[in-house]
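Supplementary Text 2. Reproducibility record for the structural model of the 73-residue chain.

All settings were left at their defaults, and a single model was retained for analysis rather than an ensemble. We include the record here because the model underlies the residue-level annotations in Supplementary Table 4.
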Amino acid sequence: MLYPNPTDNICYVELGNSNNELDEVPVFNVLGKEITTMVHNNVLSLANQPSGVYIVKITLNDGSVIAKRLVKQ
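Retained model, structure tokens:
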């Protein structure tokens, strides 16, 4: 769903064969502060963020929520 992980700067969000669409994809640091939201084309940019662990909260249009851990090198 998130690749590559770990990442250097750019990460992609992919749903596979799901019929759902992405509703929103905010990214949080380990303190719970929202640092960015996916803008377009299923691409997350962590270019302006320090190395560390981030939580990506993927909300689909059917209301389901998936949380994934993302590591930036």
